[in-house]
Amino acid sequence: MNACIRAIVRIGIARGLDIYGIYGGLQGLLDKRFEQMKARSVSNIVHRGGTCLTTGRSEEFREEEGQKKAARILKEEGFTGLFALGGNGTMHGMTKLQRYWEGQIIGIPGTIDNDVYGTDYSIGFDTAVNNAVEAIDKIRDTAQSFDRVFLIEVMGRDSGAIATHVGIACGAEIIIIPETTTDIEDVAAKINAGKRRGKTFAFIVVAEGDEEGDAAEIKRKLSGKIVEDCRISVLGYIQRGGNPSHFDRVLATKLGAHAVDCFFKGESGVMVGEIAGKLSATPLIDTISKKKVVDIYLLGLVDALSI
Ligand code: F6P
Fold first, then answer.
1. Which residues pair with 234 in a beta bridge?
2. Which atom of ligand 1 is nearest to the CA of 159?
3. Would you say the CB of residue 86 lies under 6 angstroms from ligand 1?
4. 126-241: what CATH class?
5. Residues 212-216: what's their mean pLDDT?
6. Pairing of strands 202-207, 174-176
7. Does pLDDT of 294 surpass 90?
8. Which of 16, 111, 213, 242 is 20 to 30 Å apart from 250, CA to CA?
9. Residues of the chain with CATH 3.40.50.450
């Protein structure tokens, strides 16, 4: 997020714009918490996780009255464009705001879940996956030394993107995600068959939002069905923090710069992204009405990779 804010501020200023940062997300806009950003306002943040502008969820903005109020404030303050960095909720909010405000709205995908339609990767996903991979590599020492089955829960309320990438990168035996139907009997059979083939330990990576439940619930459902008890590790918020990866910093910079370009081209109601190596601008309405699909190809490799 910070690398993107930095790019928007500096490239925007270099091209003659006055840039204001809104603190606290959409609620901050409703509370008029904005401040002019100078080139030095974004010094020393390119390597930091989180966001220097802070963020939050806004109940008030969910209501039509809140959206109208936001539009009123933007108009009264004389803003002509809004760069909105966030996930599906943010893009949804922007389509609502569009109804009441005629300024240029440009969305930028920033979510570890990588579930926003209109970009191959969203800002934060790569860092979150790296954080989870690093943690699991450490847990692997216990799994291998104690011959244990581990259920690792990663983030992803409605999305299995993190689980899929983490599972492949960590050599998981099984990946459980909300986009596919989970068959507990099948999970147990695969773990037991692996044991019979001489596997001494195993990893099951589960996305927190799977329809069969989180890691604790799946452990309960597996109880008595697999040859031994499994241990759980919930990685949680550790995934969302820390220094962003080089990939995320570069992606964030590119998308921030492209957002400014789109502003100068007069675009509005779009979300910037990168698709197959090309910078793109997808209508906001598509980002919320079309579903980004999880990488089925990668999922299809798991069984063969864990023989
Ligand atoms: O949407 C991103 C995400 O990190 C999800 O993966 C996770 O379920 C959720 O946010 C956590 O939200 P909160 O910070 O409100 O607990």
1. 153
2. 6
3. no
4. alpha beta
5. 97
6. parallel
7. yes
8. 16
9. 2-124+244-289
Matching residue, tokens 């401040």 = 35
Length of the chain: 307
**Residue range(s) occupied by CATH 3.40.50.460 in the chain:** 126-241
Please tell me if the CB atom of residue 113 comes closer than 6 angstroms to any atom of ligand 1: yes
pLDDT tens-digit series, residues 71-125 = 999 999 999 999 999 999 999 999 999 999 999 999 999 999 999 999 999 999 9
Active-site position among 18, 113, 147, 183? 113
Q: What number does the ligand 1 atom closest to the CA of 208 have?
A: 8
Q: pLDDT tens digit string along 143-171? A: 999 999 999 999 999 999 999 999 999 99
CA distance 216 to 220: 6
pTM: 0.96
Report the separation in Å between the CA atom of 157 and the middle of ligand 1, taken as the mean of its atom positions.
7
Contact between residue 167 and residue 201 where contact means Cβ atoms under 8 Å apart: no
Establish whether residue 156 lines the binding site of ligand 1, counting it when its CB lies within 6 angstroms of any ligand atom: yes
**DSSP letters of 23-64?**
TTHHHHHHTT-EEEE-GGGGTT-TT-SS-TT-----HHHHSH
Q: How far is the CA of 290 from the centre of ligand 1 (A)?
A: 21
CATH match of 2-124+244-289 with 3.40.50.450: yes
Ligand 1 binding pocket includes 115 (Cβ within 6 Å): no
Q: Tell me which residue has its CA closest to atom 8 in ligand 1.
A: 157
